[in-house]
Amino acid sequence: MKEKQSKFFGLLKPIDTGDEFKTWLIYLRKEYHSAAHICWAYRVINDQNVVEHSSDAGEPTGSAGLPIANSLKGSGVINVGLAVVRYFGGKKLGKRRLIEIYGNVAKKVIGSSSLKTWIDWCKYRITGPLDCYGDLSTGLIKLGGKIILDNSIDHLSLQARIPRSKINELIILIRNTTQGQGELELTE
């Protein structure tokens, strides 16, 4: 992207740790040593927690790193680092315009990638009356869940995974489908 003689471009890298990102950033600083700014953000999963960091790298506070981080977060991607390189064109752009540019460059890079959205999965054991099997398994799938193991013989006994964001809907589904006879236990 070009704006008032300044050139901006983004780079995206799958990563597993913050240290891995820092190593990549060292490489970028050497590779693009004549760039005025290399602003960045990354998101990684660490023990079921999302760790996020960003840097404006000399641009006005909040004008570069945060828009990049917000683009990553908004897209739902995880275990990825994104850097936007700026070659200064001699004219200041203003904080508002920088926010727009850095955010737009990040969104374009993410949009042109083949990254997958990260889902925070939880595993549960679901038990209840066997005659609820059909309605419960259908409802579970509609909520985005998946049956991992089916131990149902005389009664319903499933191990399933479901997005953490859908747990309240799963509780309601189990309560309504089993008329209060079903149970839900977090297994992982």
Automatic annotation (TrEMBL):
Start and end residues of each Impact N-terminal domain: 4-110
TM region(s), chain numbering: none
One BP term from GO: regulation of translational initiation
Record-linked Pfam families: Impact_N (PF01205)
CC terms in the record's Gene Ontology section: cytoplasm
Coiled coil regions, renumbered to chain: none
Family statement: Belongs to the IMPACT family.
Protein name: Impact N-terminal domain-containing protein
